[in-house]
Amino acid sequence: MSEQLNAVAELLIGMRGSQKEILIFPHLRPDGDCIGSAAALASALRKLEISSFVVVDEAIPDRLRFMAIPDDLLIIYTPDLVEKKSPDMGIAVAVDCSDAGRMGNSGTLYSASVQTAVIDHHVSSKGVEGIRYIVPTSASTAELVLRVIRSIGEKIGQDLMDPNIANWLMVGIQSDTGRFSFQNTTPDTFRAAAELLESGANVFANAYHLFDLTSVERMKLIAKAMAGAKMFFGGRIALTVITSDMLKDTNTTDYATEGLVSSLRDIEGVVVSFVVRESDEGEVRVNIRSREPFDSASFAESFGGGGHHRAAGFSMYGLTANEVCKMIIERAAAFFPEK
Ligand SMILES: [Mn+2]
After folding, report:
1. What CATH number is attached to the domain comprising 327?
2. Are residues 232 and 202 in the same domain?
């Protein structure tokens, strides 16, 4: 067992018998991995009779409702919580992210905690505070949380797994591996998945909800985005812009764009793809997917963002989507090795 895993497990176990809470913080705009990991960890900790909640800025997005995470496991962040919760807060755990900046408003509450811990698999993990279990080679945070839960169980001699926990972790793995097809998928991923299946996860239902289920509205949005896609550098870069008007016209939300950036990368010859999204709040968000040798994470970091080598993102403020596109194309050239 790694030292970091052991340290996180011991830290969490240490809250048994205290009146303090363990609050768990996924990242903003939650995906299956951060929400699944957070819900599984909170639920397992409750079996130790530790009061534990997942703190989020907004309710679970519609497309993840199938996970059936009970409302009583969640706290929707409000600013008054910082004062209200601080005295009760024993440990704040960041999952699938490593600093308050990725959490949105609830990051304020995370930062107010004296003791923090991080469970994450992003190469661009930031910060130095707290106990940090960060494994960039892990395909998902869910695999790391599974190890934490298993380790706690072994230490206290209690099996903490149940079908809900198993399924929430499986959702995390399926989400982040593109149902076991991305380059990040490892033998450990399959071993974890096998264990979770044996504990009651439903790989089929998850795949349907995560990847196949769609809507006419979303299809219309994707059609517009695809029609507007532009190619650069002899077809090695594919880029498209999603404007606020496109979302309004098709009656969709931001979440409808999921999967689009991967589809663009799948075009033959494309090494890196970008989806540039306008938001009403003056933010322009950029999603990146790439193939070797293009490093999405370091490209995103050069704009103040982060992520994984093959999947990353960043946000810009006070610029138009077109200005951001121009900057991307100018800077991307430097990220292709010299010929
Ligand atoms: Mn993840």
Report:
1. 3.10.310.30
2. no
Ligand 1 midpoint to CA 61 (Å): 16
What CATH number does residue 187 fall under? 3.90.1640.10
Hey, what are 292's tokens? 């070797």
Q: Which residues sit with Cβ closer than 5 angstroms to ligand 1, an ion?
A: 33, 96, 141, 176
C-alpha 134 to ligand 1 mean position (Å):
11
pLDDT tens figures, 195-242: 999 999 999 999 999 999 999 999 999 999 999 999 999 999 999 999
CA of 233 to the centre of ligand 1 (A): 30
Residue 316 one-letter amino acid: M
CA distance 339 to 217: 43
Quote the ligand 1 centre to 338 CA distance (angstroms).
Answer: 32
CA 17 to centroid of ligand 1, rounded, Å: 31
Exposure of 170 in the CB half-sphere (CA atoms within 13 A): 26
Residue 130 has pLDDT above 90, yes or no: no
- Asked whether 79 and 8 are in contact (CB, 8 A), the reply is no
pLDDT at 337: 63
Ligand 1: centre distance to CA 261 (Å): 17
Distance between alpha carbon 14 and the CA centroid of its chain, in Å? 27
